[in-house]
């Protein structure tokens, strides 16, 4: 029995392709793994603030010296990090906004990439502490970017996940969605076809 953590980051509640892909993933995963637990965190509904002084203070200030704001920021970071620590499978739904990930997803990463918790520094450099997990990244893109220098999503997310020890990462891109006609249909169908093989 596995724990699956799904992170939604689309700002759109209706008409979102990344949410459509997530719904398909969850349905297929539940059918194939009925005993698994799936937790969905929707960053459009339960927004995570940007990295700020309160969070830095919560991480770095001794507990008995923390302000109320620092304690609240640390508690929020702990909640998000504990969800990730408990997960065996991570699913990131990431529409492309201005060539990269939504700022809401970046904020989530800023809360869970934590020295001494999800990675540590060693004499030979940083070492990820989340080994043994696997991740799926479901993207939606208006144009066609995979493999090009304009794709700042996949390289960044691969590096961020590898930094915490998650190296088994599969990307499923729905591309060309704003190009209309056959591009839209082809991009969506290819992504759904790949998804059908995941579970």
UniProtKB/TrEMBL annotation:
Cofactor(s) for this UniProt protein: FMN
Purpose of the protein: Also exhibits azoreductase activity. Catalyzes the reductive cleavage of the azo bond in aromatic azo compounds to the corresponding amines. Quinone reductase that provides resistance to thiol-specific stress caused by electrophilic quinones.
Residues that hold FMN according to the record: 10, 16-18, 96-99, 140-143
One GO molecular-function entry: FMN binding
Top-level class of the enzyme under EC nomenclature: oxidoreductase
Family: Belongs to the azoreductase type 1 family.
Protein name: FMN dependent NADH:quinone oxidoreductase
Cofactor comment text: Binds 1 FMN per subunit.
Every Flavodoxin-like fold domain range: 3-197
Keywords: Flavoprotein, FMN, NAD, Oxidoreductase
């Amino acid at each position: 029995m596995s724990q699956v953590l799904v992170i939604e980051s689309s700002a759109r509640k209706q008409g979102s392709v990344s949410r459509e892909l997530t719904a398909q993933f969850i349905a297929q995963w539940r059918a194939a793994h009925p005993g698994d637990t799936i937790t969905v965190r929707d960053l459009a509904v339960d927004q995570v603030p940007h990295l700020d002084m309160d969070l830095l203070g919560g991480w770095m200030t001794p507990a008995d010296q923390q302000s109320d704001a620092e304690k609240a920021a640390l508690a929020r970071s702990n909640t998000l990090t504990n969800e990730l620590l408990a997960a065996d499978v991570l699913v990131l739904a990431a529409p492309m906004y201005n060539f990269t990930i939504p700022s809401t997803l970046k904020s989530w990463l800023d809360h869970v990439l934590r020295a001494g918790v999800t990675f540590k520094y060693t004499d030979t450099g940083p070492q990820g502490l989340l080994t043994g997990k696997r991740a799926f990244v479901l993207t939606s893109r208006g144009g066609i970017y995979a493999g090009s220098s304009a794709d700042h999503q996949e390289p960044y997310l691969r590096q961020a996940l590898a930094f915490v020890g998650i190296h088994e990462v599969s990307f499923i891109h729905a591309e060309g969605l704003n190009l209309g006609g056959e591009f839209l249909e082809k991009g969506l169908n290819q992504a759904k076809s790949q998804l059908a093989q995941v579970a």
